[in-house]
């Protein structure tokens, strides 16, 4: 992944913005298609370090250099299993490695050692096309292209009919807004177009995700404060987007951690605790502490 690493660094932001993923790592000669459904996610003893700037420039000149030079490991011995259709919440202090885990699951990078599998297939063996179809991402800063709403949505599925676009808009709680615009689906949005609120942009991004229909959703939950009406609408939209899919959520909301099938507590690049909300709360460890400091919208029952 010599030159690809450079591409990765340059387009990392953009990749996250556009939801659909351009894999930045090398495809195997005889790639395998990932299953076209809710997939399991398995990380087995994953270690990862980001390539340094020096490595990237050297590696682009000299094959193999990137494998020899090193920064520090940001993930160490990460192992977990997520069943198909489960909702997994990643929690942990800032810089713990949550985003990095999601980047490996989306194969923006390959692990330094260990394996990442979706639906049992090692991502190094997976076809880029099926990876793009199976993995969908929604980030905090939902970005739209400076183009019409129709173009922004169709990007996810060019063959979608208007009826399908409206169905996705309804499920994403944003159809009423689009109907109210004089040019409807043909309204130009984005930086210089019709101005949308943060919540509206997120819901359009969710509509795009619904059209794509990925088996795995990676979601970076909003920390930004939305007004409460918008918050409820976004939450409803997300509920329909996550139903029937595997979801990996970088969680900031109490309702998400409470409802998660599995919570992975990440600290300094390791999974330090895993389990459900009540178990982890009772264990009285890092999760219980994070719960008090990061998720304390309600009084904490006596824990541990
Ligand atoms: N592209 C990158 N290149 C080099 N180091 C990086 C890169 N992205 C993240 N890191 C480093 O990797 C470590 C883990 O970061 P990561 O973003 O995965 O943490 P996080 O748990 O998602 O944090 P936050 O909650 O603040 O988003 C940090 O030390 C961070 O500085």
Automatic annotation (TrEMBL):
InterPro entries: AAA+_ATPase, ABC1_TM_sf, ABC_transporter-like_ATP-bd, ABC_transporter-like_CS, P-loop_NTPase, Type_1_exporter. The keyword Membrane applies. PROSITE patterns: ABC_TRANSPORTER_1 (PS00211), ABC_TRANSPORTER_2 (PS50893). It is found in: Cell membrane. It comes from the Bacteria. It is a multi-pass membrane protein. It holds the Pfam family ABC_tran. Residues 41-293 form the ABC transporter domain. Keywords: ATP-binding, Membrane, Nucleotide-binding, Transmembrane, Transmembrane helix. This is ABC transporter domain-containing protein.
